[in-house]
Specification:
By secondary structure, the chain is α+β, with helices and mostly antiparallel strands. Helices cover 32% and strands 23% of the residues.
Length: 341
């Protein structure tokens, strides 16, 4: 008996690290002081332009969207999902990403699959201007089904404390600006999979006329990063609060940024719900309340801005490439919560 016959292939791990090293190195920013393979990643934080730097961190996963990736045997978009989700989570507080760490666990390590995952991680890190500083790849025989894995991401960013976006200044009369999602992003996949694959008996290659694409294409569309279009406004003070619409939908996420004495009023007819959400709701006969708590319904990020700032913010978004911002509601007096009208 040796380690390989027990299910752990050290040579596969070494080959995986070799492939990952080049992908990660391409994401390195000037602050990176270490190489992939070190026990710890080193990053030098430049605070010369900040009066009171604050580190902002977050950790997340991709959820059961992974199951769809397994079915499609497509692993290049999962890393994009992971990075962009984490970037958006710290963006709502005004933070710029510094570096990212990943955790990949699988029953039997495939260097080819691991490389595809890290290709997505590296591409998204480059797009968001953060370094893929390191991570962990764990081979755990008997713990995962053949061909399956789990991934998690950990991000650290920074914001100057005077520029921190904390929602404390949100007041009745402020306006809610919604930015469109690219699809389900990384939430609601247990519901979506049950409808598509169990109730309807479809597979990832089934073309759905109502969607104009296959089930796999619709469900594997990557989670969008909002950093490129919001970055020009960070530090200007025009954004009072932001909510990343993930698990729980608008219903549960928007109240997280509202101060005491304020509530959100959302106009359900202010945007056209994308086809994928309508199709899932109709096919699965899902009550609207459940849809709005499980899915983002086409709005992936909400900005809270003063009424007098709406036109300027929308113009700034347009200049940054976001042509589809939508006024979806406003702030009213009340206990933190969401009322749909």
């Amino acid at each position: 008996m040796d380690y390989k016959s027990s299910g752990v292939d050290i040579d596969a791990g070494t080959e995986t690290v070799r492939r990952i090293r080049q992908l990660a190195r391409a994401t390195f920013t000037p602050g990176v002081l270490s190489e992939i393979g070190s026990f710890g990643g080193l990053f030098r934080l430049d605070t010369t332009a900040m009066s009171e730097p604050v580190l902002v961190s977050s950790a997340d996963g991709v959820g059961t969207k992974l199951k769809v990736a397994f079915m499609a045997n497509l692993h290049t978009t999962i890393g994009v999902d992971l990075v962009n989700h984490c970037v958006n989570d710290i963006l709502v507080q005004g933070a710029m990403p510094l570096f990212f760490l990943d955790y990949l666990a699988t029953g039997q390590l495939s260097p080819d699959v691991a490389e595809q995952i890290v290709q997505g991680l590296a591409r998204a890190c480059q797009d968001n201007g953060c370094a893929l500083l390191g991570g962990e790849t764990a081979e755990m025989p008997g713990f995962y089904h053949d061909g399956e894995y789990d991934v998690a991401g950990f991000i650290v960013g920074v914001v100057d404390r005077p520029r921190l976006i904390d929602g404390k200044s949100i007041a009745p009369g402020d306006v809610l600006l919604g930015l469109p999602s690219s699809g389900l992003h990384t939430n609601g996949y247990s519901l979506a999979r049950k409808i598509a694959f169990e109730q309807l008996g479809l597979n990832v290659d089934t073309h759905v006329p109502d969607l104009g694409e296959t089930v796999g294409q619709a469900l594997l569309r990557p989670h969008r990063s909002y950093l490129p279009v919001i970055k020009p406004m960070l530090g200007t003070g025009v954004i009072k609060g932001m909510a990343h619409i993930t698990g729980g939908g608008i219903t549960d996420n928007l109240p997280r940024v509202l101060p005491a004495g304020t509530a959100a009023r959302v106009n359900r007819t202010s945007w056209r719900v994308p086809a994928i959400f309508r199709w899932l709701g109709e096919s699965g006969r899902v009550p609207e309340y459940d849809l709005r708590r499980a899915l983002n319904m086409g709005i992936g990020m909400i900005l809270v801005v003063g009424k007098s700032e709406v036109d300027g913010v929308r113009k700034a978004l347009l200049n940054a490439g976001e042509a589809n911002s939508i006024v979806i509601g406003d702030i009213v007096a009340g206990d933190p919560g969401v009322e749909y009208v």
